[in-house]
From TrEMBL:
Keywords, sorted A to Z: ATP-binding, Cytoplasm, Disulfide bond, Methyltransferase, Nucleotide-binding, RNA-binding, Transferase, tRNA processing, tRNA-binding
Active site (record annotation): C101, C197
Chain's role: Catalyzes the 2-thiolation of uridine at the wobble position (U34) of tRNA, leading to the formation of s(2)U34.
Coiled coil: none
Positions of the tRNA-specific 2-thiouridylase MnmA-like C-terminal domain: 281-358
Statement: the UniProt record of this protein carries the keyword tRNA-binding: yes
Gene: mnmA
Name recorded for this polypeptide: tRNA-specific 2-thiouridylase MnmA
Hydrolase among keywords: no
Subcellular location field: Cytoplasm
Species this chain originates from: Prauserella shujinwangii
UniProt-recorded Gene Ontology molecular function terms: ATP binding; methyltransferase activity; tRNA binding; tRNA-uridine 2-sulfurtransferase activity
Amino acid sequence: MRVLAAMSGGVDSAVAAARAVDAGHDVVGVHLALSAKPGTLRTGSRGCCTIEDSHDARRAADILGIPFYVWDFAERFTEEVVETFVGEYAAGRTPNPCVTCNEKIKFEALLEKALALGFDAVCTGHYARLSVVDGVPELRRSADAHKDQSYVLASLTPEQLRHSLFPLGDSVKSDVRAEAAERGLAVARKPDSHDICFIPDGDTRSFLEKRLGERPGELVDAETGAVLGRHTGVHGFTVGQRKGLGIDAPAPDGRPRYVLSLEPKSGTVKVGSADHLTVRRIDADRPIWPTGRPLAGPTECHVQVRAHGGIAPAVAEAVDGGVSLELREPLTGVAPGQVAVLYREDPAGDVVLGSAKIAATA
């Protein structure tokens, strides 16, 4: 096959490209320039898509002996990922930009261009497994539970999965680094990027305030209605947040307070005890079915609401164009805007049944 290897400049994508070469594919490497100011998006292990990263990717491609290009997707990344992120926070929701990036950039914009240029598939360094059962692609959790990235890939369609390769799905990270060193790849010891790539200093609140300005409101006790303080915008908070609330006086019972809900129109942030964070029901909309098969009825599954953690057994049912989830075990810190990913237990690795955006909880 003709394979386009997305090379971020990190160890995972470099080894994934190397394995695609070893498999006999005709491989071309490409680095996505996602920032109009690439020099500003890396601070140590924070951030990505810098000039440094593009150079690292090019050096890896040279060692592998494959052609290499840099494609400028900065404008589309800003529109599809950054502006969506800001808009979601302004609306009182908690988005996952990595999910959006995979959906809109790596497996929509990139894959579309790759297919138009005659490539058969896009190869990435994601830790996830892909199998085909009766002609239907199935996305599964990776062998490395600590690195599993099936959650952030759960928005892919069957057609996108048919043109995707995830060579690292059966590997653990330590083996990938060792393999990179054996191949002479300089990125073998390069730190993993973490947090949000376009907020390299990790200060999400400041990033949002620069774009949204101050939108003052009140911090209100959810039980008594008492005003406990003021804030500069609901975009500075997420459901389940404990620190940085700006409340001077402790709760009467001495227990910590948490953010329970956000009301962007009124600017109200309601806070209360951890007891009120418990969620037993989730209603989600905009479902995506990677297998192409929506739920046929009430379905036992596991639901995951964060990229790492937040997993519980549940009964899922497709309802009115969305998904209703009754949790067998309660979860906490579940916020509108997060993605709920449904998994079916399977001996060969849990299978992604579908994903949807959380709209409401109870």
